[in-house]
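From the methods appendix. Each design record in this collection lists the tokenized structure first, followed by the designed amino acid sequence. Records were kept in a plain field format so they could be parsed without special tools. The example shown here is representative of the layout used throughout.

RECORD:
FOLD TOKENS (325 positions):
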């Protein structure tokens, strides 16, 4: 299969750099969705496996830095340079709420039941809003000494994890607002991702990807990458991770061995965000070049808009099937 070429699908529509993206879970019909944050101020909802545009959330008056979509893709959240976070009905595209802040909102994340929203702002404060009574945050978390890049709920909603330009990753108690523990790195953090089961935190920092035990915030391993990395994602099986950054490439690594499997160039600008789809069949990347690209995890597999047309591979599969029968 290695002779097959990776052909990414390009999703156009944005007019400025794409800085963050998120996926929903797979619904009962086998469908999932993605949402992208862009400096054009117009976050977009797409069908996850094909990248087909569904709609644009119109209302922010500045760059959108953070996005999230809840598990069943009924609600979307956005954080922007207009000092606000917004919650949207993802089915109609209508704005449901605006949560005013005192500074740029860099990141937003729904609680597991979508009843609350966590926000991270350049004023160095994390906040949780009850979406039923959203006038004031119900908890504030103070301690970071620089702007906060990202915030995430743990799967049980009992803690928040955040990373900041102060080069720390911190864990917080959602009940009290107190800091539970922290982990420091020596270089700028591009971004982090918490595995779906809440066990592993994947951190892009400097020219490496660091993996932490998400409960203890202790280092499990780190892998050096040939270029400064801004983003990384570990698949649910925890056997492959992908990352990207300054040199425009997407790198794919074996998680267990830390050995590079592949690298692909498709973007014309640095890669700001990458995430595996919930079924692990593809990963999506967003770039300074204003596009999202979808990449197959297993090149040559028929999935979404990819139809396997490599005759040799198809023949080989047929022969195997005939042999098996």
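DESIGN:
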């Amino acid at each position: 299969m290695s002779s097959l070429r990776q052909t990414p699908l390009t999703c156009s529509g944005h007019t400025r750099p794409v800085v963050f993206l998120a996926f929903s879970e797979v619904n009962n019909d086998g469908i999932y969705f993605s949402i992208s944050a862009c400096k054009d101020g117009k976050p977009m909802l797409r069908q996850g496996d094909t990248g087909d545009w569904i709609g644009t959330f119109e209302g922010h008056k500045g760059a959108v830095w953070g996005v999230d979509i809840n598990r069943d893709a009924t609600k979307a959240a956005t954080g922007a340079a207009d000092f606000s976070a917004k919650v949207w009905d993802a089915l109609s595209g209508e704005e449901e709420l605006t949560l005013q802040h005192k500074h740029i909102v860099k990141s937003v994340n729904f609680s597991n039941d979508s009843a609350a929203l966590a926000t991270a702002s350049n004023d160095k404060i994390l906040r949780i809003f009850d979406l039923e009574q959203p006038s004031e945050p119900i908890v504030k978390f103070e301690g970071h000494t620089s702007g906060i890049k990202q915030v995430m709920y743990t799967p049980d909603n009992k803690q928040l994890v955040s990373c900041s330009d102060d080069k720390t990753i911190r864990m917080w108690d959602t009940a009290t607002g107190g800091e539970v523990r922290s982990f420091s790195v020596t270089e700028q953090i591009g971004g982090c991702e918490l595995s779906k089961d809440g066990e592993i935190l994947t951190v892009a920092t400097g020219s490496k990807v660091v993996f932490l035990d998400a409960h203890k915030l202790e280092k499990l391993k780190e892998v050096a990458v040939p270029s400064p990395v801004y983003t990384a994602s570990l698949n649910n099986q925890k056997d492959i991770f992908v990352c990207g950054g300054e040199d425009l490439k997407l790198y794919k690594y074996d998680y267990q061995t830390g050995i590079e499997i592949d690298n692909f160039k498709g973007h014309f600008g640095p890669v700001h965000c990458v995430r595996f789809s919930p079924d692990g069949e593809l990963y999506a990347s967003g770039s300074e070049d204003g596009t999202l690209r979808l990449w197959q995890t297993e090149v040559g597999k028929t999935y979404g808009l990819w139809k396997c047309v490599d005759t040799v591979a198809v023949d080989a599969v047929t022969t195997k099937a005939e042999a098996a029968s």
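APPENDIX NOTE: The first strand starts at residue 9 and ends at 11.
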